[in-house]
Amino acid sequence: MGIRVIFFVLIIFLASCTSVHKKETPSEMSNGIKYSIAYCLSKTYPNSEFSSDSRHISGSYIQVGSYGIQVYESIRKFVNAYQQKKYVSKHNRNLNIMKCIDLLESNKLKVVIEQSANKKINSDHK
């Protein structure tokens, strides 16, 4: 039950971060960041319903996006390395979900997305 509550709160948080203009489609960068958060969450508690839901969400961002698979592979590689960071509270409690949410503001993630997307564009024009 606790995982479902956390997941629900996270979905509301992510929804509040999206554009207020319903007719605008989210930018590819925004989809890439949301994908990274969903992917990160899917790895946080493997073999759980929470992880399964997060995998479905990350798959949805791939479906609505127009990035090639190499961009998502670059994001996964970045997130896998990023997850090695230790996030613990001052009371020594696990903050793995916070770690994933913090990807929203990761400039390094944005650089990874931009660079891998640019590599795809450049290779397509050759």
How would you describe this protein?
The chain has helices spanning 2-16, 28-44, 49-64, 69-82, 96-101, 107-124. By secondary structure, it is mainly α. Helix 2 (28-44) crosses helix 4 (69-82) and helix 4 (69-82) packs antiparallel against helix 6.
Which characteristics define this entry?
globular; Four Helix Bundle (Hemerythrin (Met), subunit A)
Low-confidence stretches: 18-25
Number of domains: 1
H/I helix tally: 6
**CATH topology grouping:** Four Helix Bundle (Hemerythrin (Met), subunit A)
Q: Please tally the β strands and state the result.
A: 0
List the helices and strands in order: HHHHHH
**Could you estimate the helical fraction of the residues in percent?**
55-70%
Terminal residue distance: 52 Å
By CATH reckoning, the class would read Mainly Alpha
Instruction: Characterize the largest beta sheet: strand count, sense, and whether it forms a barrel.
Output: none
Structural class: mainly alpha
